[in-house]
Write a structure and sequence with these properties.
The chain has 287 residues and is α/β, with parallel strands linked by helices. The chain has two domains: 110 residues, Rossmann fold (3-Layer(aba) Sandwich), CATH 3.40.50; 144 residues, Rossmann fold (3-Layer(aba) Sandwich), CATH 3.40.50. 33% of the residues lie in helices and 21% in strands. It is built from nine helices and 13 strands. The strands form two sheets. A seven-stranded mixed β-sheet has the order 3-4-2-1-5-6-7, with helices on both faces. Strands 9-8-11-10-12-13 form a six-stranded mixed β-sheet, sandwiched between helices. The two termini are 20 Å apart.
């Protein structure tokens, strides 16, 4: 059993004929992902990496019976791509695009919620279930199957920490990069609930960062969990009022500080690593 993605998941790529779409379609297929088609308006009839291209998502879903989508659409059209996916019944939507206007994302999220879809991202690396496949841009070769669930707001931190876990002999059940924008489709808590109910996950690693209150909200839920969680919060030396890397990584007044997040997690009895290099050791202690 895995959360969200397995060998039977049928994936479409929105923006498949672009450079990024083609490159990552190839990599997703190499990872064993069941990519069944792609969408680029005006390119119907073409093929990319052996899969058919359609003009609209509705055509693609009708022809392929797809239930997941990966979005490589420029910022100006990415919110519409999300809306199109939710509207035609796609239940797992992964949006890689960075820089979608906040007003557009607000509109898109209303449609996602209305259709009970799961949106990972935007501005995320996607997700990976080792042994099943990946959706997005995550480098599959660093993963190995195992009992550790992983959730992160940062893409590059995902790669760094997963590589450290693999090196330490700690395989992963599912890894999710939730995205670093101010408005994202799903929260830490949403995925913690899935991991709590996943028999293949024995412990969870959560990598947060400054900005927003998602980590504090997650800390409240962690108090109710039966499975151990290990955390790391990046941006401890960030000056207030400065955006650090992600559009969502900004401290506003007293909200969103690294210190506040660490304190909330520690109050929930969560071991918080000082550096990412401490994470494997902490995971071994709680397993």
């Amino acid at each position: 059993m895995s959360i969200l993605l397995d060998k039977n998941t049928r994936v479409l790529v929105q923006g498949i004929t672009g450079r990024e779409g083609q490159f990552h379609t190839r990599n997703m297929k190499a990872a064993g992902t069941n990519v069944v088609g792609g969408v680029t308006p005006g390119k119907r009839g073409q093929t990319v990496e052996g899969v058919p291209v359609f003009d609209t998502l509705a055509q693609a879903v009708e022809a392929t019976n797809a239930n997941a989508s990966c979005i490589f659409v420029p910022p100006g059209g990415a919110a519409d791509a999300i809306i199109e996916a939710a509207t035609v019944g796609i239940k797992l939507i992964v949006c890689i695009t960075e820089g979608i206007p906040v007003i557009d994302m607000t509109r898109a999220m209303l449609v996602v919620h209305e259709h009970n879809a799961t949106l990972i991202g935007p501005n995320c690396p996607g997700m990976c279930t080792p042994g099943q496949g990946k959706i997005g841009i995550i480098p599959y070769q660093i993963f190995t199957p195992g009992p550790v669930g992983f959730i992160s707001r940062s893409g590059t931190l995902t790669y760094e920490v997963v590589a450290l876990l693999t090196e330490a002999g700690l395989g992963q059940s599912t890894c999710i990069g939730i995205g670093g924008d101010p408005i994202i489709g799903s929260t830490f808590t949403d995925y913690l609930k899935l991991f709590e109910n996943d028999p293949d996950t024995k412990a969870v690693v959560m990598c947060g960062e400054i900005g927003g209150s998602d980590e504090e909200d997650a800390a409240e839920y962690i108090k109710t969990m039966s499975k151990p969680v290990v955390a790391f919060v990046s941006g401890r030396t960030a000056p207030a009022g400065k955006r650090m890397g992600h559009a969502g990584a900004i401290i506003s007044g007293n909200t969103g500080t690294a210190q506040g997040k660490v304190a909330a997690l520690q109050a929930a009895k969560v071991p918080v690593a000082d550096t990412i290099f401490d994470i494997p050791g902490l995971v071994k202690q709680v397993l």
